Amino acid sequence: MTISKSPRRRSLLKGAAVAAGAMSAPMVSMAQTTSLRFQSTWPAKDIFHEYAQDFAKKVNDMAGNRLKIEVLPAGSVVPAFQLLDAVAKGTLDGGHGVVAYWYGKNSALALWGSGPGYGMDANMVLAWHNYGGGKALIEEIYKSLNLDVVSYLYGPMPTQPLGWFKKPVARVEDMKGLKFRTVGLAVDVFTDMGTAVNPLPGGEIVPALDRGLIDAAEFNNASSDRVLGFPDVAKNCMLQSFHQSGEQFEVLFNKGKLAALPADLKAIIDYAVQAASADMSWKAIQRNSQDYIELKKAGIKFYKTPDAILRAQLASWDKTVAKKAAENPMFKKVLDSQKAFAERAGQWHNDYTVDFKMAYNHYFGSGAKKS
pTM for this structure? Predict the structure, then answer.
């Protein structure tokens, strides 16, 4: 027996089929794109600005068309050292720089970049920040300064050179009277060592060195130093220093702009920071080692900073932090937290870590067997 469907029943079935098809079809997002304007504290050609763009790309790729971060180079909206205030006020939605640049706001902020770091390298300082109390402390400092920002620290930097010199230094006495560029707490450390310090922003260093306004300067790494033009104005680079041996980058967001984002986009930003931190450290090894070779080919002379100067840095650091801690309770609070973490983590690191120089020299040193 054949049962025929009534016209009304056929109409209902057809409507249900259309509805089911619509539900199974891909949904087209009608969400609007939230655009955030960032500025870095770096010149456009610097690898540091590239790192800032790398972070933004990770966020943009994961967020699809819902969030887009655009990163402008230093000076596009405000000078490099005015970035923090611009983000706090909402002139910029965010930025990329280093905490040491805000040293003038509160001296304790320099402890996230200036050394010695009590034997910790940059990655260990980040471990302290994320798991040893540093994150809560920097939030406390920014809150006390009425700065409506959210700070993400990432990207452990390789140990920075003592710097570029018109003439190499061999003794502690050679540092006295030297017109020298540095930033952060290193200003006080080198001042105690007798240098005449000028804390110039990145883009102004090489012109000042070229014109003889300064005798020597530090910036950061082989890749940045090379592209910024240091080899054109100085032919001597002193490697190894404690003055900025544990620095990292900072991504800043205007607090209101970040708070307005939905939870999933905030999570994307959190994980983009972590991903960019790892990627940056890998890229730094690749690019810095390549540019180090190119600098040697260009005739740059590299010297190890004498141990006497390194010890003098530590002695000046001790005097500097004792004075700052007496003047600023927050400085002492950060210092005590960092030192406690360093004592525990440093012992573990030193006891467990093998001497990689031994293996390197075995295979590539002057006495290595050539295959």
Answer: 0.87
